Structures are given as structure tokens and as C-alpha cells.
Amino acid sequence: MPFHVSVDEFERIAAAALDTIPESLRARLDDDNLLITIQSAATESDREEDIDEHVLGFYEGGDDFPKRIVLLQRHIERWCSTHAELVDQVTDTVLHEVAHYFGMDHNDIGETRLRH
Ligand SMILES: [Zn+2]
């Protein structure tokens, strides 16, 4: 049973997840203006990039665009049935994508319960 929250609440949870990152690392994210964008679900063009309903979020680090983490709210909510689970899942997703921002690949990150 998906656990739904408002976009505002989802944003608040994502911001709190960023606050769990140590100060020294967070300063680098801030300097770089790393954005977190919340999208309700994958778009048509995301799907062309193999971003399907199993993907909870992704990191875009191209030179031509602002670096950003995209969180797919409905996809994350699908796996959660309580507020606490939602907080855990959003936090894991944010930290996973921040690891990509710092150049880690999935071997570095290791096995997690999250895809992508
Ligand atoms: Zn990943």
C-alpha cells in the first residue's frame, strides 16, 4: 500500500536527508549548487533512458546542465506503507545519488536494497 505525502512534505524529508551528510561534504554540494528535483514519476523521455517504475531516483551530472538529483516521489512512495519507511527510503535514495555525485559507482556503493 503506497504511503502518499504532499510534495511539500516530501521536499522536507529530502532536505532533512541532506542534513545527515557531514558538514564538509555538504559544503561541496552547496558550492556546486547541486539541486534536488522532485518529480512525481518518470517522464516519457526518462523511460527512453531506462528509468522505469523500479527506479527511485537518479543523478544527472552533465556539463551542459546543472548537476541534479531527481527523486521520483510516486516510485518511492510505492515501497512504503508508513511515514517512517518513507523517511528511510527517501534518505537512502538521496544518499545513494549523492554518492554518485561524488563519483562512486555501484561497486563502490556496494549492495543496497535500492536499484539505481
Ligand atoms: Zn545508482
Automatic annotation (TrEMBL):
InterPro entries for the chain: Zincin_1 (IPR010428), Zincin_1_sf (IPR038555)
The organism's place on the tree of life at top rank: Bacteria
Protein name in UniProt: Metallopeptidase family protein
Species for this entry: Candidatus Amunia macphersoniae
Upper taxonomic lineage: Bacteria, Bacillati, Candidatus Dormiibacterota, Candidatus Dormibacteria, Candidatus Aeolococcales
